[in-house]
From TrEMBL, chains A, B:
<dbReference type="InterPro" id="IPR016164">
    <property type="entry name" value="FAD-linked_Oxase-like_C"/>
</dbReference>
<dbReference type="InterPro" id="IPR016169">
    <property type="entry name" value="FAD-bd_PCMH_sub2"/>
</dbReference>
<dbReference type="InterPro" id="IPR036318">
    <property type="entry name" value="FAD-bd_PCMH-like_sf"/>
</dbReference>
<dbReference type="InterPro" id="IPR016166">
    <property type="entry name" value="FAD-bd_PCMH"/>
</dbReference>
<feature type="domain" description="FAD-binding PCMH-type">
    <location>
        <begin position="36"/>
        <end position="217"/>
    </location>
</feature>
<keyword id="KW-0274">FAD</keyword>
<dbReference type="InterPro" id="IPR016167">
    <property type="entry name" value="FAD-bd_PCMH_sub1"/>
</dbReference>
<keyword id="KW-0560">Oxidoreductase</keyword>
<dbReference type="InterPro" id="IPR006094">
    <property type="entry name" value="Oxid_FAD_bind_N"/>
</dbReference>
<keyword id="KW-0285">Flavoprotein</keyword>
<protein>
    <submittedName>
        <fullName>FAD-binding oxidoreductase</fullName>
    </submittedName>
</protein>
<dbReference type="InterPro" id="IPR004113">
    <property type="entry name" value="FAD-bd_oxidored_4_C"/>
</dbReference>
<dbReference type="Pfam" id="PF01565">
    <property type="entry name" value="FAD_binding_4"/>
</dbReference>
<dbReference type="Pfam" id="PF02913">
    <property type="entry name" value="FAD-oxidase_C"/>
</dbReference>
<dbReference type="InterPro" id="IPR051264">
    <property type="entry name" value="FAD-oxidored/transferase_4"/>
</dbReference>
Length: 477, 477
């Protein structure tokens, strides 16, 4: 049995003093971003790819499990160790030597430990950005492992859509380096192996470097917060927007009244944009972006959006607050904080075909109202891509005391609705980790489970890497 | 040893009279679109997924190889049998029952045998299209197997970018059905298994159905054929376009003087757009598209492009022919036909980072001029995505007689330049088939080859399906 001391003694020569953490120095690496925590054997922080290879070689040879960790911003528990104190956390936080921009190719090659914010700072002087927008600052390696989506997916796609090449260290005693793809937009030379490491929560290999397609930073944007006339009008409005202004649509976010109210009530310096009227039952944050400059197009994007909205008045919308994008996005991004102030959140990161998203939300709210009337729904989501954060709060002042069995029953019920009744996904953009792997086992069809089992056997037969075993044979039907 | 008679006798009850072809009825299924032909044991044309399963079950049980074939438009020989008369061609041409449009979700679920043109006819009434544009009418299943790219990739991506779900029949004696993904834009629930079947030339499983994201059909477009002031100016022009009009750019195609001249000289009813001047040494076909209507934006796309070009005059461009998109695209799409009229084409479908594309073309032309002066280069390509059809013609009137050994030496030389000197791909959009698999073996690094070998062992241990063995163990270093 390995102890922290013996493992640390073996790893120290591989990564040096700064590369090894023990004891209380490990605390932030053992704590999940929002939920859960564990206990690591030790934390290694390799400073370059060669050090990653050395650590993998040693761990693969001695059958020591590795938990890859980027900026540790994930929400499904996949970047923190379990409580067994038998896993080594491999943090990529020092893996940040390379960040090479090829402006004419609109691509960047970047080490896994560079964060999204750092990447965007590096791209800024070139008029470029990596446009995936979310309420956190993950590392690039973590974004690949999570296949991050965010609020502007409808315009730019997820990480998978923007990944040109990937480098990983394979989980064999050779710690072999695998380079997949190049800085190319067209390359069809056999199976696209890098896809095996995208959206798998760190399973399969250690991600060390990625080449990403990047985009022109918009020179104009326009925003509005609009109140639809009905649930049916929401999809009509979205379709009209795509028809008339589809080149510019970058976000179409749904905010329930409860969600807005939670933010307004509990987040400092946030005002109700509809004041003196109360927040409506439902509103949509519309954002348009134009990479193109007004100089050539003559197009004022905010004026254009306003004209469109005028035309929609009384057809699909009742009211609108226009402009001031910063304030409107601040409201949108404050919902999670506001919801947490109300009590314990029970988060559902789900998606359905967007043609059914309003029906799903209505049906799910009805289930809570009828069978869990002591709970409070704070839902919001990315309507244009079918994603819903159907979050439910067990308020501090609820009529019933917090009960994990009820939470579990609610989770079973909502996920069953999503997957079985609405042809949806039980994890839209947060991925699968220890927190929700039971639903992977429940809802993945047997042939897919068997194929995943074969992949795990191929890539990581000892199940050394990551926190989820997609090939768990006990689960294969 | 199975004969056509004994196999046909076994398969006939599974697919019926209309589903089985023998003898001379097989001719068009044995002939490659442009190059190569083989000899099939028989051709089966299942009419639905159940019939595909029955055929796979029988073939997997009796170890009979299957060659899946869509519309048979591929260019690397991957959809036609070899000349052994031991393979059954499984044509998806009757697999065309389902074509379900969900307009509000902007998605369509479609059987593998439906062609691109049929799909677009079905989408038209909804104001939608599947915007992948190429000089052929492939089946949807074939497009997935080839990961088709085409001329508008820079705006819409390739098939992989637009694939939401995939159904395949696995190559086991159960002929098991594997459904992967749903009509969702955000769905991160474990390994994305459908990626294993995209761009693999029919290896791994029989593709039976796909769900695709589709797009709003543009309401405006604008075109121009421009002459750059220099090679360096080409990338400057592209970057300026993306900066000033990036929301609209849908094509940026390079046409060499030889390419234009071949089309003008040999394709009926095609005129030189620069007449009375001769065709220039190099020109770029620019296309802009706006999904958005002029009604809301006030934007006339052709006027906008013209203003941009005025501004570029003497900076990056010398001359421009504007408007008449139909005529300009006809010139672009006639190059292959024109080139074939000159003699035997030696095709190179390659890509490099677009920042190096003009350098690559110059260097490759110099190699031909110096070491193969009797050959004639007819290059054109997709500059914005780094793709080049660096085609070389062995003219009928060449000073040296056609010599396969010289062709082989040229292929080795050009591919080595692309892959080793320019960090490029030896097959940008045509994929890998029997015609070019030798370069897959040569240029795929050993760890990637071993992983591909493991995948093949997992998905098709008998190597029953397709015409390329990406896991060829004789090739694994």
């Amino acid at each position: 049995m390995w102890t922290t001391d013996t493992v640390a003694q073996a790893l120290l020569p591989l990564v040096g003093d700064r590369g090894l953490l023990q004891g209380s120095d490990m605390a932030s690496y053992e704590q999940g971003a929002r939920y859960g925590h564990g206990k690591a054997l030790c934390v290694v922080r390799p400073a370059n790819v060669q050090e990653v290879q050395a650590v993998v070689r040693w761990c693969a040879t001695h059958h020591i499990a590795l938990v890859p960790q980027g900026a540790n911003t994930g929400l499904v528990g996949s970047s923190t160790p379990d409580d067994s104190a038998t896993q080594v956390v491999l943090s990529t936080s020092r893996l940040r030597n390379v960040c090479e921009v090829d402006a004419a190719n609109r691509s960047v090659t970047v080490d896994a430990g560079i964060t999204l914010q750092e990447l965007n700072e590096k791209l800024e002087p070139h008029g470029l950005w990596f446009p995936i927008d979310l309420g956190a600052n993950p590392s690039v390696g973590g974004m690949v492992a999570a296949n991050t989506g965010g609020t502007r997916l409808i315009r730019y796609g997820d990480v998978r859509h923007n990944l040109l090449a990937l480098q990983t260290v394979l989980l064999n005693p050779q710690g072999e380096l695998l380079d997949m793809g190049r800085a190319l937009r067209k390359d069809n030379t056999g199976p696209d192996l890098k896809q095996l490491f995208v959206g798998t929560s760190g399973a399969g290999a250690i991600i060390t470097r990625a080449t990403l397609e990047v985009h022109r930073k918009p020179q104009q944007s326009a925003t509005a917060l609009v109140v639809p006339t009905s649930d049916e009008a929401v999809l009509q409005l979205l379709q009209a927007l795509e028809r008339d202004l589809g080149d510019y649509l970058s976000a179409f976010e749904g905010l329930s009244g409860h969600a807005m109210q939670a933010a307004i009530d509990h987040v400092p310096n946030l005002r109700n944009p509809f004041a003196p009227e109360p927040a409506p039952d439902f509103a949509i944050l519309i954002e348009l972006e134009a990479a193109s400059s007004k100089a050539y197009t003559g197009l004022d994007l905010q004026d254009t959006l306003n004209l469109f909205l005028q035309d929609q008045f009384e057809q699909t919308i009742d009211n609108a607050v226009i402009g001031n994008g910063h304030e409107l996005w601040h409201l949108r991004h404050s919902i999670s904080e506001g919801a947490r102030a109300l009590g314990k959140p029970i988060a559902f990161d789900v998606s359905v075909p967007r043609s059914r998203i309003m029906d799903f939300c209505r049906a799910a709210r009805a289930v809570v109202a009828q069978d869990f009337p002591f709970l409070h729904v704070v839902d919001f989501g990315h309507i244009a891509d079918g994603g819903v954060h159907f979050n439910v709060i067990w308020r501090s002042d609820a009529s019933k005391a917090y009960d994990p069995a009820v939470v579990s029953a609610l989770r079973d019920r909502i996920y069953a609705m999503v997957v079985q009744d609405f042809a949806g996904s039980f994890s839209a953009e947060h991925g699968v980790g220890p927190h929700n792997v039971a639903y992977y086992r429940q809802y993945t069809p047997p042939p897919a489970r068997r194929l995943a089992q074969g992949l795990r056997q191929l890539m990581d037969p000892q199940q050394l890497c990551g926190t989820v075993d997609f090939g768990d044979s006990s689960a294969a039907v």
